[in-house]
């Protein structure tokens, strides 16, 4: 079962979709999430969020000033500033 991922900034939805892996930087260090992960609520640190879609496509975004929440295979990343990296 894939993860449902929502990455939003204060102004817009940056990316939303299904993924097999999400890696983000928190104030505690880098953390990765796959389906079945235990619930997590963490403070997002400035850095890259790396998402691997279920089709294998890799998406990267710069994000800072926010939090990341994981529960029931849903990953929500809320950032003050976030933008996809080309």
Task: Please give a structural write-up.
Belongs to the ATPase epsilon chain family. It is found in: Cell membrane. It is a peripheral membrane protein. InterPro entries: ATP_synth_F1_dsu/esu, ATP_synth_F1_dsu/esu_N, ATPsynth_dsu/esu_N. This is F0F1 ATP synthase subunit epsilon. The protein is mostly beta strands and 86 residues long. 23% of the residues are buried. The model has no long low-confidence stretch (mean pLDDT 97). It starts with a strand and ends with a strand. It has strands at residues 3-9, 13-26, 29-33, 40-44, 47-53, 58-71, 74-84. The chain is built from no helices and seven strands. The chain has one domain (3-84): F0F1 ATP synthase delta/epsilon subunit, N-terminal (ATP Synthase, domain 1), CATH 2.60.15. It is globular, with a radius of gyration of 11 Å. A hairpin with a 2-residue loop joins strand 2 and strand 3 (29-33). It has a five-stranded mixed β-barrel.
| CATH fold-type name | ATP Synthase, domain 1
Would you identify the CATH architecture? Sandwich
Largest sheet: 5 strands, mixed, barrel
Within CATH, the superfamily carries the name F0F1 ATP synthase delta/epsilon subunit, N-terminal
- Helix amount: under 10%
Strand content: over 45%
* Shape field: globular
The helix/strand series, from N terminus to C terminus, equals EEEEEEE
Low-confidence stretches: none
Which strand order do you get reading across the main beta sheet?
A: 1-2-5-6-7
What do the pLDDT scores average to?
A: 97
Q: Please report the first level of CATH classification, the CATH class.
A: Mainly Beta
């Amino acid at each position: 079962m894939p993860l449902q991922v929502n990455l939003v900034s204060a102004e817009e939805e940056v990316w939303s979709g299904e993924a097999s892996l999400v890696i983000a930087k928190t104030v505690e260090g880098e953390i990765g999430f796959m389906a079945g992960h235990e619930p997590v609520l963490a403070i997002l640190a400035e850095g890259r969020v790396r998402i691997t879609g279920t089709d294998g496509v890799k998406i990267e975004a710069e994000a800072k000033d926010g939090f990341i929440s994981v529960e029931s295979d849903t990953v929500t990343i809320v950032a003050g500033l976030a933008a996809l990296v080309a």
